[in-house]
Specification:
signal, 8 strands
C-alpha cells in the first residue's frame, strides 16, 4: 500500500510542478500589438436643414477610415410635420476639408478627394437633399468634425517591372 501511495504522490508532483513553474497567462499583460485600423465608415452629425412648410433634413457627413483615401458622403433622414414618416434622402453637392484653418482637400459629394494624412478635419459641405418620394427638397451648408487616423500612402520604392 505504501508503494502505491508513494507512486500516486510522485505522479501528482510531476503533474503539478509544471503548473507551478509556468506564469499564468492572466498574470502578465498582453504583448504589444501593431494597431491596424480596419476599413470602416466614420459619420458625424453635421446639421439640420429646414425649409418651407416645416420640411427638415437631418444630415451627417461621413468618410471612410482605415484606408489612405478621403471619400466623403452625406447621409440624411428627411421629414415634414404632416406625417410621422421618415423618408430616405438622396444627397449631392460639394465638400471641403480644413485642418488648422487651411483647406487641405475638396471634392464632389459623394466622392473622393486627396487624403492629406491623419488628423482632425472640419468638413464643410454645400449639400442638396431630396426625399423619396419627392416631398422634401432642401439645400444648405452643414459642418462636422471628423478625426482620421490612417497613415498616408507611401509610394513604393525601387524599380518596378513593366509588362
Amino acid at each position: 500500500m505504501r508503494t502505491r501511495l508513494a507512486t500516486l504522490r510522485t505522479l501528482m508532483g510531476t503533474a503539478v510542478l509544471p503548473l507551478a513553474l509556468v506564469t499564468p497567462a492572466w498574470g502578465r499583460p498582453d504583448p504589444p500589438r501593431s494597431v491596424q485600423e480596419v476599413p470602416a465608415t466614420l459619420c458625424a452629425p453635421a446639421g439640420v436643414l429646414r425649409g418651407a412648410g416645416h420640411q427638415w433634413a437631418s444630415v451627417s457627413l461621413c468618410t471612410g477610415v482605415g484606408t489612405p483615401v478621403m471619400a466623403v458622403f452625406a447621409a440624411a433622414l428627411c421629414g415634414y410635420p404632416a406625417t410621422k414618416v421618415r423618408y430616405a434622402c438622396r444627397t449631392w453637392g460639394t465638400w471641403t476639408a480644413a485642418r488648422d484653418g487651411a483647406t487641405v482637400a475638396s471634392g464632389t459629394l459623394p466622392g473622393p478627394g486627396e487624403y492629406p494624412g491623419p488628423g482632425t478635419y472640419e468638413v464643410r459641405a454645400e449639400v442638396r437633399v431630396r426625399s423619396a418620394p419627392p416631398r422634401v427638397e432642401l439645400n444648405g451648408t452643414v459642418r462636422a468634425t471628423l478625426t482620421l487616423t490612417a497613415p498616408t500612402a507611401t509610394a513604393p520604392s525601387g524599380p518596378r517591372a513593366l509588362g
